[in-house]
Amino acid sequence: AEHIYLGGDAVARDRDILKKNGITHVLNCVGFVCPEYFKSDFVYRTLWLQDSPTEDITSILYDVFDYFEDVKEQKGRVFVHCCQGVSRSTSLVIAYLMWREGQSFEDAFQYVKEARGIADPNMGFACQLLQCQKRVHAFPLSPSSLLRMYRIAPHSPYDPLHLVPKMLNDPSPSALDSRGAFIIQLPSTIYIWVGKSCDVILEREARGAVSQIVRYERVQVPVHVITEGAEPPNFWDNFFKFVIQKSANGLKHSESSLGVPGERKVNLYDVDFEIFQKAIQGGFVPPASSSEADHETHLPVRENSWSTLRRKFASGHMKDFVLSPRLVLNRYYSDSMLNIARDSMVLNRSHISEFTSAASSILSSPSSLSSSSLSSSSLSPPYLSP
């Protein structure tokens, strides 16, 4: 990953060092602490990550992969930083190496640590990266992972239109909400469940998130888009089957447990829906300025740039799927469309460079990685089944 540079805020605020090393893009992981110092000189992307074991980085990893791939495609160089370049920024680079280079968490961590000795993801990030390793290496699902459920929600109140798939710890029909869009991932199917009161933006982002699952986890299953109140009969049966397998309580399938279509509501989601609605109804007042030179207090509704990248990197005919605002009910992308042909690709030997301080020279990491093979994905011709 020779286009990725890693460091802290001391370098992020030094224009000369960034320019001297050919940096074209900056990924700022701590928008509430570090502003976008030089917006006229570099292309910025900002995340709002707390260095806490409970912080969710899983939901933004595939967006970060998209961004790194976009910089690579442009033949640019991206400087990834948090405050000290210890935990948040290093975790994102480690995750990318696991996917791009096919490395294990341990190998990717060791490689980054050789480049930047203070690299040390917190325990919560390390656990999430170990789970990420299983997904991006397409490990067989364990019994506890047969059912995954995500809800589309703002990753942070600082950026309420950066909508991400947040994984639910306790997936079940009772976790569905008529206001939202949800992804239910089973071993043989992915469902996008769209509530009756769901905004089309949430549905669009659910489609984009599924396209990332297909790309980065090499998933080869049909994708169904279903609307609340018009679910096919086998949807609830399949859902409950895996909920029961995951639960030690032996839950029973009952109509009363499904809720009333259009009236499903989970109070825990209220804050996220409120933040989202404020953002799409004319803007919002961010908790912190996004730029020292441009103190924004009211941001207009605009398309989130992360969403644009999701559509750009949607593979083959998944791009049509992502762009479609709504599919006709009961139409879905079949196995023949989502089958992934895997072509072996030998990766170039690459390196990550580390900025050691704002004033000193740059120390390079070990000059090479052992070559490894990575499967690239392409999709078969389109097929829509009625």
From TrEMBL:
Key word DNA-binding present in the record? no
- Which Pfam family, any one of them, does this sequence belong to? DSPc
The residue ranges of the Tyrosine-protein phosphatase domain are 1-138
Q: Which UniProt keywords apply?
A: Hydrolase, Protein phosphatase
Could you tell me one molecular function GO term of this UniProt entry? actin filament binding
Under the heading InterPro entries, the entry gives: ADF-H/Gelsolin-like_dom_sf, Dual-sp_phosphatase_cat-dom, Gelsolin-like_dom, Prot-tyrosine_phosphatase-like, Tyr_Pase_AS, Tyr_Pase_dom, TYR_PHOSPHATASE_DUAL_dom, Villin/Gelsolin
EC main group? hydrolase
| UniProt EC number | 3.1.3.48
Question: Which superkingdom is the protein from?
Answer: Eukaryota
The Tyrosine specific protein phosphatases domain sits at 65-116
Q: Where is this region: Disordered?
A: 364-386
The identity of this protein, by name, is: Protein-tyrosine-phosphatase
Q: Which organism does this sequence originate in?
A: Opuntia streptacantha
